[in-house]
Specification:
By secondary structure, the protein is α/β, with parallel strands linked by helices. It folds into 2 domains: 2-78 and 276-296, Rossmann fold, CATH 3.40.50; 83-267, Rossmann fold. Helix content is 36%, strand content 17%. The protein binds D-malate. D-malate binds at residues 37-38, 57-59, 82, 270, 273.
Length: 302
């Protein structure tokens, strides 16, 4: 009988995939595998019997990879399993930054008691006018599972899409719409795009990539979106760019205290993958990987 510990509850739909050879344990000490969503595991001590950690999500920055490697613990993630959920929120983020939906809703809530919202709607229409996505240039930095979906969806909205990724996989290249301009020069995206969205992992080489230099190259009034990892954007430089009006909106899926409340910032509490479908897909993939490893020694994404 294999034992698993569900550290930071992943979807029950995924757990239901475990066969009768698996049993849950309430503490990690006796587990063969730990399942985790985004709880930070850096301070945890791992028992000698622990063989695998499966992260129901793409990023593994909540897991101490070096410690796992030293102790021979295999770490799995679920790339692509929540990509559609994130893609949909990125598109929503572009719309929130383009149309003052939040301002309009707040206006209705603030004024509904006066009973004049229908009569005053003409004024609101002017106050909350926005811009359309069609015809605007979108730069997608990182063409992995999520970047490709965002790029393709944006073409269907009539956007002129530029994609940057020095390491496009064959799989991504096949899935990428042929109308997307692929560039190997990221400055081309910074200099020309009206909307810029980042979809790269947090690595030493990508941390702070959207900093003073990159922001300096961007167009006045650019809209920047970050649904990948907060550390990709230098918060101090972004606050300066928002205050100066260089960046019209920064839409981030990370509740970064320095950014929240700054004019033009649209801060979401990490909801990209928070859909029933994404959570189920990630959990199912994580469980499948754990079983394949414990039973067959396979280390691969299915
Ligand atoms: C991911 O890395 O895929 C997301 O952070 C998932 C999540 O929100 O748990």
């Amino acid at each position: 009988m294999y034992k698993y510990h569900n550290l930071n509850p992943i979807s029950q739909v995924g757990l239901d995939e475990f066969t009768k050879d698996y049993a849950p344990v309430s503490t990690p000490e006796t587990a063969d595998a730990i399942l985790v969503r985004s709880a930070a595991m850096h301070e945890m001590e791992f028992a000698p019997d622990l063989k695998a950690i499966a992260r129901a999500g793409a990023g593994v920055n909540n897991i101490p990879l070096e410690k796992c490697a030293e102790q021979g613990i295999v770490v799995f993630n679920t790339p692509g399993a929540n990509a559609n959920g994130v893609k949909e929120l990125v598109i929503a983020g572009m719309l929130l930054a383009s149309r003052d939906i939040i301002g309009g809703i707040n206006w209705v809530e603030e004024n509904e008691e006066d009973g004049n919202i229908a009569k005053d709607a003409e004024k609101a229409k002017k106050a909350f006018a926005g811009q359309e996505l069609e015809g605007k240039k979108l730069g997608v930095i990182g063409l992995g599972a999520i970047g490709v979906l965002v790029a393709n969806a944006a073409t269907h909205l009539g956007m002129d899409v530029y994609g940057y990724d020095p390491y496009v996989s064959v799989d991504s290249a096949w899935r990428l719409s042929r109308s997307i301009h692929h560039t190997t020069n990221v400055d081309e995206i910074y200099e020309n795009c009206d909307y810029i969205t980042v979809h790269v992992p947090a690595l030493d080489s990508t941390k702070g990539m959207i900093g003073k230099d990159a922001l300096g190259l961007m167009k006045e009034g650019v809209i920047v979106l970050n649904f990948a990892r907060d550390v990709l954007v230098d918060s101090e430089a972004m606050v300066d760019a928002l205050v100066a009006g260089k960046v019209k909106h920064y839409v981030t899926d990370f509740p970064t205290p320095e950014i929240a409340g700054v004019k033009g910032a649209i801060v979401i509490p990490h909801l990209g993958a928070s859909t029933e479908e994404s959570e189920d897909n990630c959990a199912k993939m994580a469980v499948k990987e754990v079983m394949d490893y414990l039973e067959n020694g396979n280390i691969k994404h299915s």
